[in-house]
Amino acid sequence: PQTGPAGAEGSYVCIVTNWNQLTTRVSDATYDAWNAHDPAAVASWFAEGARVRDSSSSEWEIGPGPVRDRAAMMCAALPDLTLTRQVLVIDGPRHADRWVMAGTHTGDLLGVAPTGALVRFEGATFTTIDEDGMVTEDIHHVDYATLFAQIGTSG
Is the pLDDT of residue 2 over 50? Predict the structure, then answer.
């Protein structure tokens, strides 16, 4: 919440962020961008200093660039990609969503040559946004075991 003078002596205006509304707007827009296969639109919701990482790595990537690059790789690997939200849980500026990604593996995917396999795998993302709706931190967990089994490799 932000407070400040309202103009009259001794009175204040309190602006409270409606996190449920803001988070839903950001989440919906991000899912729409993924399903439109628009990596730039996916990345546009990430602040310049956003910290992003996959749970399989301890390394943080910074800013929207790595987000755009990962989205571009996924959209090229699965050109018919769909991303479906299963659950969204909101706790103030933090939220968690469980999702399902599906598509046909016709491009390089995490170093694996195209197989033509239909894939469907689940994941969860834990995100923090600021009062402007920009993502400041994003950690995603992906069921790589299921993904790699479907494309015939152990990863």
Answer: no
| Side chain identity, residue 20 | N
E strands present in the chain: 2-5, 12-15, 46-54, 61-62, 82-91, 94-104, 118-129, 135-142
**Strands (DSSP E) along 11-67, which ranges?**
12-15, 46-54, 61-62
The pLDDT score that the predictor gives to residue 121 is 96
In this prediction the pTM is 0.86
**pLDDT above 70 covers what percent of the chain?**
88
- The encoded tokens of residue 38 equal 């628009």
For the chain, what is the mean pLDDT? 91
Rounded distance, CA 2 to CA 13, Å? 8
CA distance linking residue 17 with residue 127, whole number of Å: 17
- Which among 65, 22, 53 is positioned nearest to 139, based on CA atoms? 53
111: nearest Cα among 147, 79, 142, 80: 147
